[in-house]
Amino acid sequence: MVKKRRQYDAQYKFQLALEAAKGNKTISELASETGVHPNQIGAWKRQLLEGGAEVFSHNGAQQQRAETDDDAELYEQIGRLKMELHPEGPRLKKRSPFSIEAKRAMI
User: Fold this and answer.
1) Is 104 among the domain residues?
2) What is the band of 53 on the pLDDT scale with cuts at 50, 70, 90?
3) Local structure of 38: helix, strand or coil
4) Higher confidence at residue 60 or residue 21?
5) Integer Rg of the chain from CA
6) CA distances (Å), 7 to each of 10, 35, 70, in order?
7) Domain check: are 36 and 73 in the same one?
8) 15 domain residue, yes or no
9) How many Cα atoms sit within 13 Å of 79 on the Cβ side?
10) What is the value of pTM for the model shown?
11) Which end of the chain has fewer surrounding CB within 10 Å, N or C?
């Protein structure tokens, strides 16, 4: 008979690692109560102490990727708006509003 691997959600891992980190019960006691191997609880505890709850969620990487995609889209829109505002590009900003003859007349 093939035993199927158990998969735990991020909240359950976080709660169990938090209980282990508190130290009210030993890791062995937690393992016997929950049915999770003590080594696994110890690993979750180390991960919790190093990185927090986002370590256990798979959505963290997807969220970060979505944010960078949103940022890229916003920068693209900014570029388009700048081109609409100044179609000639940055050269227009360098030009003086007065011609050379007007400058000479001012002097």
Assistant:
1) yes
2) low
3) helix
4) 21
5) 30
6) 10, 13, 32
7) no
8) yes
9) 6
10) 0.49
11) N
Residue 56 is given by DSSP the state T
Average pLDDT over residues 61-67: 70
Is a pLDDT exceeding 90 seen at residue 43?
A: yes
User: Are 12 and 36 within one domain?
Assistant: yes
Q: Does 67 reside within a domain?
A: yes
Local structure of 2: helix, strand or coil: coil
Each residue's pLDDT tens digit, 9-27: 989 998 999 999 998 999 9
Residues 31 and 70 in one domain: no
Q: Residue 40: which of 15, 16, 10, 23 has the closest Cα?
A: 16
Residue 44's CB: how many other CB atoms inside 10 A? 24
Residue 36 domain-assigned (yes or no): yes
Range of 39's domain?
A: 8-57
Same domain, 94 and 105: yes
70 Cβ contact list (under 8 Å, min separation 6): none
Taking Cα atoms as reference points, which of 20, 27, 11 lies closest to residue 59?
11
Q: Which residue has the higher pLDDT, 1 or 19?
A: 19
Supply the pLDDT for residue 61. Answer: 65
Q: How many domains are there within the chain?
A: 2
